[in-house]
Amino acid sequence: MCGIVALLLGDPKATTAAIDIHESLYYLQHRGQDAAGITVSQGGRVYQAKGNGLVSKVMNDGARLQQLPGNLGIGHLRYPTAGTSSVSEAQPFYVNTPFGLCMSVNGNLVNTEELRRFLDVEARRHINSDSDSELLLNVYAHSLTELGKSRANSEDIFTALRAVYDKCQGAFACTVMIAGFGILGFRDANGIRPLCIGSRPSATLEGATDYFMASESVALTQLGFSNIRNIKPGEAVFVQKGCAPIFRQVVTPRSYSPDIFEYVYFARPDTVMDGISVYRSRQNMGIELAKTMREVLGDKIIDEIDVVVPVPETSNTSAAALAAQLNKPYSNGFVKNRYVFRTFILPNQGLRKKSVRRKLSPIECEFEGRNVLLVDDSLVRGTTSREIVQMVRECKAKKVIFASCSPKITNQHIYGIDLADPAELAAHGRTTEEIAKHIQADHLVYLTLEGMKAACMDAADKDSLVEDFEVGVFTGKYVTGVPEGYHEHLSSLRKGKKRQAEAAGLASEGRDESTRNAVLVTNSGPVNDAGPEYREDISIHNFATENRNHE
Ligand SMILES: O=P(O)(O)OC[C@H]1O[C@H](OP(=O)(O)OP(=O)(O)O)[C@H](O)[C@@H]1O
Ligand SMILES: NC(=O)CC[C@H](N)C(=O)O
Ligand SMILES: [Mg+2]
């Protein structure tokens, strides 16, 4: 679930867009820890720095910003869902034809094979990586080229987008920079992935306005932007140098169904997404979960609970509300190591496992001799819950009850969160009792899907247009539908990649990710690194290009 941004400074002489973009990426780091990148433009020339790692590492604590002059630009934080973790798939992507186009994508496409064939055979564009985002950029670039203009106007920018909506199936929110011209943002026709825009007065040119787009409102508010407006499903916004933004409904919206996973896990609590406060939605989930627990477990078991403990960090908000609703003491019984990041979005299972203990440690006296209720936002592979329950038992708790703010996760997430092969999900083929046994809890309670949806809807402000939520991970029904054989295709890609990694001896658990190469690309397109690729899941092999015969 990547983070994307775009900025246009109102002062045409300004050169500091990269400084603000860099700053904003710190507020979105939780959306992707694998790679980061910034691309800016000055006088029509494109400058770019990207690589594997956190923003601070890639930008060398800001030292690289000196090489990034410009008054407009885009940024990206990557959490891979397609292709590999290779640095050649770090974003933004750049293509020189037409006009110098750069793109940052949050999302995932489900018809990549078809797009690859189209780009190879019909559009005759070379694709240099396994990333689905590179495909999306090239579909747009091809469509813009087909207009046959040597200079584009804002109308052309929107017209060319129609092909993206026609051809690309899946979920996407994108920011684009057209070198020296302006910034563009657009969102899929169901509004699955988020994007918003805001403005602030220019600090250096009186009367001028800066415009900024980002995945989450927190990045805007922290940088002094206000008048925040969500881009609607199927809508685009273009901000040309020196002009006010133009909003355009490119295609008819199919629905307004944001991904519910943003609210339960992904987004920061200080974000308001599509008119719904993430913080309030999590509080409501806690309240709903308390009610469900009473229904499922009965008063006796609830009365015996001595303490409610969140599994930091995302569940803190829900757990506090749940404790208040049950009238039970709340304790921060786990200490979160502030130097360890999100474990779920780490790229392999060995790292995830190791990270849980490194990240969370129990305060023994908060558990000893007590009936403990542990609350987490989600139970996906069960990596966290198994370790945590074990730790609480080591602290001599009397009883361990586990409660999840999400319903059972039984299906793949196909729109930008790399959940796992369904067979790796804790709930795969198991009843609730069997899952409780698997994580060694005495009882396990899940929030219902209706409860979770209601919790989010009840947190909506009066202007929110959200109609429903994308909940395919819980139901197996996805708002866009998927091409026939897609799940089997994903599964065989995963297996192939795993076999490849094992054969190369690279699948060892807990391998140090810092051995990956990082490069600084300035004013250039995607570059293939020679570094090891040992991500254990999806890799899409570029058969089309490989088999191309020029004779
Ligand atoms: O069942 P699992 O496969 O372990 O996945 C679920 C866990 O992963 C996430 O935590 P994470 O450490 O990523 O982030 P957080 O600090 O925001 O809670 C999530 O909040 C759950 O705790
Ligand atoms: N999490 C995301 O939004 C991923 C974007 C894109 N599919 C990639 O793998 O790079
Ligand atoms: Mg967590």
Provide a descriptive summary of the structure in words.
The chain is an alpha+beta fold. It folds into two domains: 3-254 and 514-543, 4-Layer Sandwich (Glutamine Phosphoribosylpyrophosphate, subunit 1, domain 1), CATH 3.60.20.10; 276-469, Rossmann fold, CATH 3.40.50.2020. Helices cover 31% and strands 21% of the residues. It has 16 helices and 21 strands. The chain has helices spanning 17-27, 55-58, 112-122, 132-146, 154-167, 217-222, 260-266, 278-304, 316-326, 349-359, 383-394, 432-438, 449-457, 472-475, 486-503, 543-546; strands spanning 3-8, 35-42, 45-52, 72-78, 93-95, 101-109, 170-178, 182-187, 196-201, 209-214, 226-230, 235-240, 246-249, 272-273, 276-277, 307-310, 334-336, 360-362, 371-376, 399-404, 443-446. The strands form five sheets. A seven-stranded antiparallel beta sheet has the order 3-2-4-1-10-9-11. The protein has a six-stranded antiparallel beta sheet with strand order 5-6-7-8-12-13, with helices on one face. The chain starts with a strand and ends in a 5-residue tail after the last helix.
